[in-house]
Each structure stands twice: as C-alpha cells, then as structure tokens.
Amino acid sequence: MIHISNLFYHKQPLQLAKKIGALSFRGRTFFCNSGAEANEAALKFCRYYGHQIAPDKKTIITLERSFHGRTLGALSMTGQTKYQEGFSPIVPGIVHIPANNIEALEQAMSSQVCGIILEPVIAEGGVYPLSPEFARKARELCDLHKALLIFDEVQTGIGRTGTYFGYQHFNVEPDGITLAKALANGLPIGALHVSEKWQDVWSPGKHASTFGGNLLISAVAEQVLSLLEEELIPQVQEIGDYFKTRLQTLSRLYPDIIQEIRGIGLILAVQFKLPVPEIHRLLLDNGFITNLIGDSILRLTPPLIINREQIDMFVDFLNDFCAKQFYK
Ligand SMILES: *Cc1c(COP(=O)(O)O)cnc(C)c1O
C-alpha cells in the first residue's frame, strides 16, 4: 500500500512527523509534495493565525534575494522580481527587507505582521547566511508583536549546513519550519512543521493535500532522517569545514580574482571579483555540477557523501582556472 485517503491516520506519516519533531521541536506536521507547497502552507498558516487575533494582522515579512518557490503565494514571498515578472498581480501584503539589516526589520515590524519567513542561508539567491543576531532579533520582535517566525528549510534542512536544520546554528526556537528537497532523498515530499504551541490553530480540513506524505514517501523520509542521525551529520560538519578551508586558502592565493567564500556546511559559494560567465560550462565539461548565480557567484551544494579526494579535484581545478585568469 503506497497511499490511503487522508481521511485516515496511518502510522507511517505519524512516525515521520514524530521524527521531524524529535530532531527539531515538538509540534504538528502537515505533509505536501514540494517546497513551494510547504511555503504556501506556511503563508496560509500565518494568515489564518493573524486573522484569529485581528482582521488587519496579515502582513508577511520575507527577505530580498530570497527564494520560496513558484506557486503564486510562494512566488509572492520570493524576494526577486525577475521571477514575478509577467505574473502580476501577485499576492498582496508581503514586505521584503534586506537580510541581516536589523534596522529594516525593526521598521517593517508592527502589530499587523502575522509572520516572518526566512531562509537560514539565502540559498538560490547567492548563499548569504543569516547572522545569529538578525535571527534572534526576528525572534524577539515576533514575540513582542505576536507574529510567527518560520524558517524555510527547504534547501538548508536535512543536514545541508551540518546541523539537522539551518536554524539550529542560531540558538533560536522557531514557530515553524518548511521542508522538502532532500527530505525523501529524491521522492516528492514537502512539510510544514509547527510548534505544539500552535497545534490548535488549524482544525482538520483547514488545509489538505491528497498525496502529501503518502505511506511510501513517509517511509523513505523516515529512513533518510535515520541515516542523517546515524552517519551523515558529523560527516557534513567535518567535510564542510575541510571544503571551506581549502576554498579560503585559494581565495587568499588569488585576492584579485576571488572576493570571498561564503556559506556553512555543504552549502558554499565562491564570490568572484570579476564576471566568470564561462566557469559554469567549463566545470560541467569536466564533470562538476555547480550553479552560477548572476555571473560571479558559484554556488556549491554537493551530495552530503562527497569525500576529500573529490573536493581536492574540484579545488585543484578551480586553482588552475584562477591561475589562467591571472595570466590572461
Ligand atoms: C527549491 C526551494 C523552494 C521550492 O521548492 P520546490 O520543491 O521546487 O517547490 C523553496 N524554498 C527554497 C529555499 C528552495 O531552495
């Protein structure tokens, strides 16, 4: 049996929800099929929560450069106008502020805000980690104004940053997290997990998904989380540090070419000082799948099982590339 109607409970998704709670915080979990759907659920959850307090408590704050998915609500929260062009009118009541700008956050915050949705590391937008101070300020302001703090962990969750979830670097307790991508290691699943404080905000039927968290996928995701617990977390920390150190050494060798190395665990970026539009193709031709953001940010999100030899091969290749730039 791979699927039953969501009118029934089954132990498989329940066990997965319990496991997510054990690795993050106690609460309730809604399962869907993708990251966009998870964020759509988060947006609806914040709005619903806000409306229970006051009719005008409906503003959502997200970050400039953020990415939250392609459905209309998730797209409207995404802080990059290039993805929104041609799809107007987008969902109203969403404010974007620059990451790590505490002043902008304080100014945007008011009793009308029902939720703040943040990527712990702005991933697709160029690998910009949030500062712990910014995350803690968001927590403080959410408490003050009775708003919910949700982290979009679609890319940073499931061990990517060397902790189970990216927010765990901040010493901040969120009201909710959204998950997808790696959760079932390639099978389609998404989740919104909210703190038990808010377990009664939604009654059954307020939000739903036919295939979300079906039995097959829940079983796979539970295994993924077990593997993470037993083997992968310490490995990601160790190999991520090694990768970053090697890249930093390279950046010191070529200060005129590399501006900085950003990121944490196995979500890293090389910020070049000059446009390198050809680098992505060159790397691909040599067997390295990377992602070029704009024309000068190389985003690196290798498999969590990458080893030192593979990293060495990559850094050596990058070294040759920088050397050639130097003598151009
Ligand atoms: C990829 C991504 C999404 C969207 O997930 P889909 O499964 O493609 O809908 C949302 N948020 C973040 C941070 C992502 O990286």
Write the layout of secondary structure elements.
Blueprint: H1 11-23, E1 27-32, H2 35-53, E2 59-63, H3 72-77, H4 81-84, E3 94-97, H5 102-108, E4 113-118, E5 121-122, E6 128-129, H6 132-145, E7 148-152, E8 176-179, E9 190-195, H7 215-253, E10 258-264, E11 267-272, H8 279-285, E12 291-293, E13 297-300, H9 308-327
Parallel strand pairs: 2-3, 2-4, 4-7, 7-8
Antiparallel strand pairs: 1-9, 5-6, 8-9, 10-11, 11-13, 12-13
Bound molecules: pyridoxal-5'-phosphate.
Residues 34-36, 39, 67-69, 119, 123-124, 152, 154-155, 180-181 line the site of pyridoxal-5'-phosphate.
Give a written overview of the molecule.
By secondary structure, the protein is α/β, with parallel strands linked by helices. It is built from nine helices and 13 strands. The protein has helices at 11-23, 35-53, 72-77, 81-84, 102-108, 132-145, 215-253, 279-285, 308-327, and strands at 27-32, 59-63, 94-97, 113-118, 121-122, 128-129, 148-152, 176-179, 190-195, 258-264, 267-272, 291-293, 297-300. The strands form three sheets. Strands 1-9-8-7-4-2-3 form a seven-stranded mixed β-sheet, sandwiched between helices. The chain has a four-stranded antiparallel β-sheet with strand order 10-11-13-12, with helices on one face. A two-stranded antiparallel ribbon has the order 5-6. β10 (258-264) and β11 form a beta hairpin. α1 packs parallel to α7 and α7 packs across α9 (308-327). The longest helix has 39 residues, at 215-253. The model has no long low-confidence stretch (mean pLDDT 96).
